[in-house]
Amino acid sequence: MNEFSAFLDLLLSVLRFSAPLLLAALAGLYSERSGVIQISLEGFMLAGAFSAASFASLVGSGAYGLVFAILVGLLCALFYGFLVIGLRVDQIIAGTVINMLAWGGIPVISKAVFGSSASTPSLDISVRLPSWFPIVLALGAIVFTTFLVRRTALGLWLTFAGENPDALQSVGVSVFRIRWFAVCASGVLAAMGGAALSVCLSSSYTRNMTAGRGFMALAALILGKWRPIETVFACLLFGASDVLQMRLQGASLPIFGALPNQLVQVLPYALTLFLLTGIIGRSSAPAKLGQPL
Amino acid sequence: MTGSPNKGELSIIEFKNVTKRYGDVLANDNLCFRVVKGEIHAIVGENGAGKTTAMKLLFGLEKPTNGEILFNGLPKPWSGPKGALDHRVGMVHQHFMLSLSHSALDNVLLGNEFRSHSDNTHRHERGPLPGLGVIDRAAATKGLEALCEELGFAIPWSCLVSDLPVGVQQQLEIIKLVWAGADIMIFDEPTAVLSPLETEKFLDLLRKLAGRGKTIIVITHKLKEVKHVADRVTIMRRGRSIETRDVSDTTVQDMADRMVGRHVVSEHLPRGSFASNEMVIQIEKLSARSRTSMKLLDNINLSVNSHEVVGLAGVEGSGQLELVNLLCGPLEYRRKNHIDSGWLKLFQKDAGGMSAAAFRRSPVAIIPSDRLSEAVLLQENLVENDILGHDHEFAALSFPANLILRRSEARSKLPPRLEEFDVRPCDPDRAIKSFSGGNQQKFVMARELTRRPKLIICGEPTRGVDVGSIERIHREILKFRDEGAAILLISSQLDELMSLSDRIYVMFQKSIVAEFKRGDFSENSIGRAMGGGNPS
Amino acid sequence: MSRTSLNSSLFSVFLVELLWICSALIIGLGCGGLVAWSVGESPVHVIKVILDGAFGTAYDVGMVIYFATILICTGLAVAVPLQIGNFNIGAEGQTLMGAFAAGLVGAYGPSGWPNGFAVLAAISAGILASGLWGSISAAIRSFKGGHEVISSIMLNFIAAGLTSWLVVAFFQADDSQIPETKTISSNYQLLRFSIFDGAPATMVGLVALCVTIVFWLFLDKTRWGFQVKAIRQSPAAAARAGYNANKSMFWVFTVGSSICGVAGAVMVLGESWRFRLEISDGFGFLGIPVALLGRGRPLGIVLAAILFAVLHHGAMLLEIESTKVGRDVAQVIEALIVLSVVSVPPFVRWFRTKFSIGLQS
After folding, report:
1. Residue range B151-159: average pLDDT?
2. Does residue A167 belong to the interface with chain B, where contact is any CB pair within 8 Å?
3. Which end is more exposed in chain C, N or C (fewer Cβ atoms within 10 Å of the end residue's Cβ)?
4. Four-CA torsion B234, B240, B242, B244, nearest 10 degrees
């Protein structure tokens, strides 16, 4: 019984750790399936995390914080969309700029509003959202996304926008609109992921609190071959390696001896790298990924 | 004017004095023609005659500068492809609008996600949130199966399009239009990728569709097919509609003359005869596979001698490209694919494992068939483009001095080359993209041929080239033959091959199926061989 | 056309680049001022503090030179692969690996070697390590077709994890509580120019300038440079011309990333004298905006590196001189400069087309 509850506990913490990652990875899925490269997930997540925590502390409600984060995520996505869809700026450069703005801009705002560039004020436990909440959010996002991509017309249009936009255009669906929708969905979901980190899983925003999760989400997306269900499993794998890394700190395993946790931490990245080499299977991107109209 | 529709017949589409101007260029000039309901209407013209522009105007992708396009007697009510499709006007493009990584079913459903029957009375309108409607793939498959049966298609609906042969992909495009309810179907060069046998079947299908009450417009330059299937034909030249007439009143020769604007005689170009020929390309029993073990070439036997033009005929994708690439193609291509058996020799030396450096120093010239993407750097001027592929000529022989590129030397050597091939304007500092197609091609030929190669591999030398330059280019090719070069000529124009070649090999499904000698050339038997039939 | 006449005079090239950088600087500082103003700080004060922080004392000038040295190297590491169309977003990890290798050679290499030789050995080790690390991305891109941006991002994280593990597990300094290697022997330390009051401005700054010139000669005057240009502009035409795109991409990317080794070595041998985990501190990443602002031109890269070094070092004084704005504002300004560089021309075009369509209809 004890072992069972320990296992359950482990499972739950894996889910908790995976949830923000999952939201971000699904965010990437929308954008990249529609043909827009998304390396600014990290910036979107940071913006979401910061805006949720700061708004929550200002109005005293975690839920409002989350809503505000979604709005901010949408705003960031609109900006990104304007750059890459409207102006056709190189998508990797635009993504890099968004990340830089998030890295530099958030501390500036934080210092101006709260007097500290390191973190936002700590949220009271009553203000924070429950830690199971991100799991529910992620579950909802998974179900919705899978349904959308596999069963609906919009899903078909989304995937055609990334594979053969001309064909989509020729039947009268605006590729611009589909890509705008995808980028906006991406911003909203990634910001939710960030907000989950700051108002559900901890009590404040701390400097660079996503710690590369946006990039990890991108890795999960590639590992999941840009398909919803596979991406979910990749995220769970990454979440598990995260939890393992913390649980195993200093513990010694029968065969390997003491497992260095820095190496466990880079496991997801190494796995993705191997996938890129084609040694362990191939993951092929949408045909028109990164090509503006 | 002959061929005008009878008073009782309703013209469904009419171009009325349509003019389209791009800057200084008149793409369509006072274009007039009408298409009658239920007919098969062919539009013929040379490359650049304005056929594509006319279709863009019809679909609303561009707006005419002057004039109007009538649909059922009224100005056309749509302004984009979707609107056209709503009025049941659809088009099969030359480059298929299919996503290779989607299933055949999804490709057909795109744009008509909620239909389950081809009949227009069952048409479902899109709701306020159409995107979130659920696609009923099972019902759609059922409806499509029924439609396939009527048309005589067999399409594996769950297969990815990338796994389907090109003929089936075209069927998919056609069924997509029928499924979308199109009554007017426009085909852009539909038979370019088909073998003669498939072409035959396709033309039958066109008649079947016309029999079902569809109006069909075929854009093509293959006049025999026009004669074979069309009811009426509109001939275009330099953006103008020369005339529209009943096909039964005209001959292929007549159409050709009007298309080109003068009497077309098969060119009788002077050619010397030479006895002692040395073997330049020699290929014996060559078979090759790609890394994914797809068959690239199958048991090729081929030779090209000096003083000889050898033509390579075949439907697109029969293996011509693979053969050229294995001979002299990009290094990566040769490394990725391997030769199973047999050997190939250039200048009587084994060339199977020839290094890039050795190849480029050998006296071989390549004139790629896709000029714009494979032969030039569009942004750069003529000097830089002259260096392309020949940079070793403008450097010292030994390391490290051979690294330095002597641009001034390249510049000083360029003008005589340009003059020899009459490239106009003769300005080395102009970017290549600002030259006309004919002058670009002449420049490429100047770059490759003024190096006096002993072997010339030449693909589609006159594609996208104006009539005036064609003859000049043909003469140049024959001049080099007479001077002793060996020439391998790949062309999709059978008459070009027949007028230039000394021998013609025909390729079909990656192997050589027939060889013809000059004197035995006949369009009929070569055409049959291209489709895999018995050449005799 | 006008390009040739401009190219004919070195002076006018310099002038154009300078004008370009200056306009970027004005836009950037303007935006930065706007940011400062919006959080309630006087923009003039912020700009004054940044300039004062960068040029106030000889020491500050020395620091700017030190940072510029690093940024020239990481900027080149991004700019060189960009010439063949590859985006090296992995300069951060490559710099880290270079610094680590240089630090190890400095700490454990023979302490008897003469200074010049020892420094050369340590820098070479850094170059080798960076190049090797970059060659992973390069190989995946050229021979397997995997996107270099993705592999570079992964390799950045892997480099951080790997060096962290190696330091903690094998090379931890006994005299330190934080994860770092032991101090390098004195013969491996780069000599600092005395006029800069002990700031780590070293000869390597001149070396970086030389590397930039070599890079320019390579691109403009050699057959390789021509081939690189052809491959970037039209892979198909380059392939027909017999140029091996995969091989070129591999080498250009690898050589480019190896320049990071110089940056990493300068950090260890010139400034900290030991390898720390956070040593690259985003400088690899800053190479991207430097390369973009420099537009692949050698002079542009040098000027962009100096500009970013000024911002980076100057903004540090803000921590003391301003209660409302911190050093992070430098990164915002840098981001805004890049943003204006990449988006203003298309924005003007976009605006124009919108406008002319409005006139037509």
Report:
1. 87
2. yes
3. C
4. 30
Q: How far does the CA of residue A91 sit from the closest CA of chain B (Å)?
A: 23
Q: Does residue A160 sit at the B interface (CB-CB below 8 Å)?
A: yes
| Interface predicted TM-score (ipTM) of this complex, two decimals | 0.86
- Eight-state DSSP code of residue B380: S
Token couple for B471: 């003859």
Q: Residues 6 or more apart from B191 whose CB is under 8 A from it?
A: B198, B199, B202, B220, B222, B225
Q: Cα C91 vs. chain centroid, distance in angstroms? A: 8
CB contact under 8 A, B332 and C223: no
Task: Give the DSSP letter string of B41-72.
Answer: EEEE--TTSSHHHHHHHHHTSS--SEEEEEET
- Does the distance separating the beta carbons of A160 and B99 come in below 8 Å? yes
What gap in Å lies between CA B308 and CA B481, rounded to an integer? 6
Please, which chains are in contact with C (at least 3 CB pairs closer than 8 A)?
A, B
First-to-last alpha carbon distance for chain C, in angstroms, is 35
Q: Examine the pLDDT at B38 and tell me if it is beyond 60.
A: yes
Q: Are A50 and A105 in contact (CB under 8 A)?
A: no
Question: Which candidate from B91, B110, B180 shows the least CB-CB separation from A156?
Answer: B110
Give me the mean pLDDT over the A78-84 stretch.
94
* Beta bridge pairs of residue A258: A252
Q: Which residue of B has its CA nearest to A181?
A: B131
Q: Tens of pLDDT along B381-411?
A: 999 999 988 888 888 877 777 888 888 889 9
Mind telling me how many Å the CA of A182 is from chain B's nearest CA? Answer: 13
CB contact under 8 A, B374 and C236: yes
Question: Does the reported pTM lie above 0.90?
Answer: no
Could you give the CA distance from residue B509 to residue C100 in angstroms, rounded to a whole number?
57
Q: Does A157 touch chain B (CB under 8 A)?
A: yes
Nearest to C66 by CA among C328, C257, C316: C316
Contact B134 A159 (CB under 8 A): no
Residue with tokens 């020929």: B277
Q: What are the beta bridge partners of residue B287?
A: B341
Interchain contact, B101 vs A284, CB within 8 Å:
yes
Phi, psi of A18 (to 5 degrees): -75, -25
Q: Does A269 touch chain C (CB under 8 A)?
A: yes
Write down the pLDDT at residue B263: 64
Q: Please say if the pLDDT value at position A168 is more than 80.
A: yes
Residues C182-232 pLDDT 10s: 888 888 888 888 888 888 888 888 889 999 999 888 888 899 999 999 999
Q: Is C4 on the interface with B (CB under 8 A)?
A: yes
**Three-state SS at B280:** strand
A 45-74 residues inside an 8 A Cβ radius of C: none
Nearest-Å Rg of the Cα atoms of chain C is 21
- Report how far residue A155's alpha carbon sits from residue B158's, in angstroms, rounded to the nearest whole number: 17
Distance CA B480, CA C314 (A): 69
Q: Does the CB of B416 have a partner CB in chain A at under 8 Å?
A: no
pLDDT of residue C2: 39
Q: Give the 3-state secondary structure of residue B264.
A: coil
User: Which residue of C221, C223, C224, C360 to mutate against B (max B Cβ within 10 Å)?
Assistant: C223
Q: Check pLDDT > 50 for residue C3.
A: no
